[in-house]
Amino acid sequence: MPLSIQAGLWGLLSGSALLLGAAAGWFVPMSRRTISEIMAFGAGVLIAALSFELMEEAWQRGGFPPVAAGFLGGAFVYTIVNKLLAAWGAKHRKRANPAVREQDKQQNTANGTALAVGALLDGIPESIVIGVSLLRGGAVGLVAVIAVLNIPEGLSSAAGMKAEGRKFSHVMMLWAAIAAIAGVAAWFGYVALNGVDARVIAAVEATAAGAILTMVVDTMVPEAFEGTHDYAGLSQLQVSWRRSPWRR
After folding, report:
1. Residue-level pLDDT at 70
2. Among residues 69, 53, 114, which one has the least CA distance to residue 89?
3. From CA 36, how far away is CA 242, in angstroms rounded?
4. Which candidate, 158, 171, 125, places its Cα nearest to that of 14?
């Protein structure tokens, strides 16, 4: 099977985890604290992946200039787009607390499209990483796939959508569309960067890392802290340490 198709299938698989998380958030009764603890764990996985997989690999490929430029650029672009989405009514798209999400609905009653675009914004950098990881020799990076199998994102968001009265079919269609786009993004990441200069690939990896870290801090950490408070950081540090290469 061509590697480009493999990249797309891996991206589709990882994006499908959002559906599993959404189904769990919809049907499995969970306390606010439990949802927040799961979100803290997911945030720790992403931080570990971008630190020990993306940034390390990008540094080895391209050195300091492309890595620094990409990382700062990814963080800057994500922040600008996220601010626009917040004004559009998608600031709390990963929050399970209905009272918090109600602020978005009051700000913009037609915030459904903003929620979909926000979910897409959060998922594209992660999916491109999967396609890029196949450029290292035909094997997808395991940490990249684990990072994108981020069930907590779908779980918390779906729980919040249910609380604010959205239909189950609407939520499932939203995440199914995001899963399909994740597959396309992974395929594109492989096709577009296959054969290009290593410094360009390093810049793309660093850009994805910057965007992912900003997403974690802006959208996942607030939800994690709200339910666990002083224990949110401990949950993230535990999973980051477990995946650290320092323990090898």
Report:
1. 94
2. 114
3. 20
4. 125
Closest C-alpha among 30, 22, 31 to residue 168: 22
- Identify the segments of the chain with pLDDT beneath 70: 93-116, 136-150, 164, 227-248
**CA–CA separation, 26 vs 155, rounded Å?**
8
**Can you list the pairs that 237-242 forms with residues at least 24 positions away whose Cβ atoms lie under 8 Å?**
237/44, 238/44, 239/41, 239/44, 239/45, 239/48, 240/44, 240/47, 240/48, 240/51, 242/48
Q: What is the separation, in whole angstroms, between the first and last Cα of the chain?
A: 33
**What are the φ/ψ torsions at residue 54 (nearest 5 degrees)?**
-70, -55
pLDDT of residue 145: 65
The residue length of the chain stands at 248
Q: CA 55, CA 117: separation in Å to the nearest integer?
A: 26
As a whole number of angstroms, the distance between CA 208 and CA 126 comes to: 7
- pTM over the 0.85 mark: no
Tally of helices (H runs) and strands (E runs) in the chain: 12, 0
Task: Round to whole Å and give the CA distance between 156 and 172.
Answer: 14
Count Cα neighbours of 43 within 13 Å in the Cβ-side half-sphere. Answer: 27
What is the rounded distance in angstroms from the CA atom of residue 23 to the CA atom of residue 35? 13
Quote the pLDDT of residue 210.
92
Give the rounded distance of the alpha carbon of 53 from its chain centre: 15
Return the pLDDT at 133.
76
Residue bearing tokens 């931080």:
47
